[in-house]
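Listing S7. Sequence submitted for prediction.
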Amino acid sequence: MSEEAGRTRAREGAAGPERPRLLVLRALGLGDLLAGVPALRALRHAYPEHEIVLAAPADLDPVAAATGAVDRLLPAAAPGRAVPAALDWTGRPPETAVDLHGNGPPSHRLLSALRPGRLLAFAHPDTPEITGPPWRPDEHERERWCRLLRFYGVPADVGDLALPRPDAPSPAPGAVVVHPGAASPARRWPADRYAAVVRALVGTGREVVVTGGPGEEELVRGVAAAGARPLAGGLPFAVLSALVAEAHAVVSGDTGIAHLAVAHATPSVTLFGPVSPALWGPPPVPRHAALWHPGPPGDPHGRRPDPRLLRITVDEVVRALAGLPEAAPGVVGAGPLRKR
């Protein structure tokens, strides 16, 4: 049995068979889950006696555990950002089901098929039996799900998104973390520009490490050849979390590691293209810089780098990094700059 599966089994056993169950659907990626932490924490506070079950990809089990808001992860995934065809739910129906996946109707129908006692979801004309609030396409992701819960009488704080300091040691404390990868080409700034940022940082004496997702080892090595240390693509979450928590700063596109930097209060520079930072960006505080050239919305899942993303220059990124404040003492992510 894997370590993650063992934690899931332990949480499930500790929950006990008689606890009322609350099922949350958010079968998406790392950044999506981290953006949903305020809503998950709100549900934990509002339903303290319930076993909270999160339907999400199996590899996010350690992330769900780190939130402190989830008792058990129910593996669920589909290609892209689609709604899973079915959920491997057993036993009695959930007392409450919460759709944090989308605005329906497929996600509504998936949860309704389990016959929950109550379903919390946004309204959709194709599922008129759900009398939730209206969907707003121009709303920030964290606020969206908090607003949904408030509609149903559940207080939710959009700022409740911090993760605890990881137990694992960082493989590069005090380094600048450069993460050139992203799930789709539309959100990948060119590798040669990331390499230029690495050279600029190394030229000032900063230690730089390069990370990537699963299958991005070649990209990581290519960017790191500019003078950084490459770390394996697809680091285990405990290691990645520790790396980000103890980093001097994180540079990436609009992807999961940017949300992890926010969760650990680590200074960051995030490069946005097809999607405005007003929808997915970090909180408006000085330690996070969101670079974006305004324009019509693009396709975040497109097969080519978005034109707005390509307007961001190497000099802009380097200047943004130089302008970041040091993390406050005692805050996760704080620490002196490490020289090479």
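Caption to Listing S7: primary sequence and predicted structure tokens for the chain studied. The longest strand covers residues 51-56. The chain has two domains: 3-151, 176-322.
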